[in-house]
Amino acid sequence: MTRGRIAIGGAVAQKPGAAGHAWQFLQYLLGFRRLGYEVLLVDRIDGDAARRAAGVGWVRDVFAAAGLGEAYSIDLGDGRHAGVPRRRALELVRDADLLLNVMGFVEDPELLAAARRRVFLDTDPGFGQMWCALGLADVFAGHDAHVTIGERIGESDCAVPDCGLDWITTPQPVVLDRWPEQAPLGARRLTSVASWRGAYGPIDFGGHSYGLRVHQFRRFADLPRRAGGSFELALDIHPADAADAGLLRAGGWELVSPAAVAATPDGYRRFVQGSGAELMVAKGMYVDSRSGWLSERSLCYLASGRPVIAQDTGFGELHPAGEGLLAFATPEEAVAAVETVRADPVRHSRAARALAEERFCSDRVLGALLDAVGAVRA
After folding, report:
1. CB of 110 within 8 A of CB of 86?
2. 3-state secondary structure of 59
3. By the 8 A CB rule, do 278 and 211 touch?
4. Is 248 exposed, middle or buried (0-12, 13-18, 19+ CB in 10 A)?
5. How confident is the model over 96-102, as a mean pLDDT?
6. Rounded distance, CA 275 to CA 300, Å?
7. Which secondary structure element, helix H or strand E, spans residue 112, and what is its range?
8. Which residues pair with 232 in a beta bridge?
9. Which of 75, 204, 228, 373 has its CA 20 to 30 A from that of 31?
10. Which of 43-47, 68-72, 103-107, 195-199 has the lowest mean pLDDT?
């Protein structure tokens, strides 16, 4: 017997092959289902027939592999829908406890009006808030509650403006039974999955330029040479950034295409769990704003018993750091953190899993989120 229904609005069909991005949504969809809810993804895709077919095929395959069936409704932009038809999708959204609208992706007035409770979920903290404060865009309007994974919003040293909204903060969830703990491998091989630039450009705000991952990563280009061992980065980088790719390779980074090692949810999981640990460099926005952001990818490493060495965004003031999860701000601190994990990989592996269980388990995170947004829980 189900407790109710939750609709999640977000862009999955637009990114076929982006398995890490798909996992970010799967953590919510599967996590809510674990709590007893029926779930529905509300998505859209336009473009030519080939692009629409690729997007629909991607969602279909991802959902089938996850055991979610056709719990999706994708607007194809020509009056047709893939998965759940529009009329039925409207009925399901109308009957749902809430519509969790990731980055305000659902803009359809009829769908938004159908939802009894519209909750904005901010998964890219800093960008939307600064756009709003600068008068460039307001993606927050029309929602009943606002949630952000930038858990330090409102702190005196956090540069993310609140835009006059009452923000609910939450960590991201990880579905533990989909990310079982693995035996420790040591930390000679460190990996991560990343995009070099992403979807947004830098933002000038309050006299500071808040940049992207590229602007941070250049500072750590020679980290592998300094720390030793193997550093493998599944990096989505455009050919126009060949000079940066060369800089990374010269510093000892082994660059591989995400399409080669992490093109499906299962492949992504194998890549993460086949690693000794993660070395994560964040976007400049998250670092310089002191947002407290922590990657959903890092939570997959933690749950797998893989230590995470992550660039400091202020998350250490929110969650225990030092064992299993280590923060760094400078290349020297990153080298020291790598050496710390390598000195006792078993201890850090166990601590990583324990942290995932205690702080990021989807049952705990999503249950608290439902309470915070005022959803009725049976």
Report:
1. no
2. helix
3. no
4. buried
5. 97
6. 11
7. helix 109-114
8. 191, 254
9. 75
10. 195-199
* pTM, two decimal places: 0.96
Quickly list DSSP for 12-45: -TT-TT-HHHHHHHHHHHHHHHHTTEEEEEEEE-
Q: Which two tokens stand for residue 6?
A: 């939750």
Question: Quick one: how far is CA 29 from the chain centroid?
Answer: 13
pLDDT value of residue 4:
93
Beta-carbon contacts of residue 356 (< 8 Å; ≥ 6 apart): 174, 176, 179, 299, 302, 303
Instruction: Give residue for tokens 């080669």.
Output: 260
> Closest Cα to residue 372, out of 139, 138, 98?
98
Contacts of 117 (CB under 8 A, 6+ apart): 97, 98, 99, 144, 145, 373, 374, 375
- Kindly report the average pLDDT of the chain as a whole number: 96
Q: Report the C-alpha gap between 349 and 276 in whole angstroms.
A: 9
Contact between 92 and 84 under an 8 Å Cβ cutoff? The reply is yes
The CA distances from residue 342 to 18, 185, 335, in Å, are 30, 10, 11
Q: Are residues 262 and 234 in contact, defined by beta-carbon separation less than 8 angstroms? A: yes
Token pair belonging to 50: 């080939």
Beta strands in 155-188 (DSSP E): 167-169
Give the number of residues written for the chain: 378
End-to-end CA distance of the chain: 11
Residue 11 has pLDDT above 50, yes or no: yes
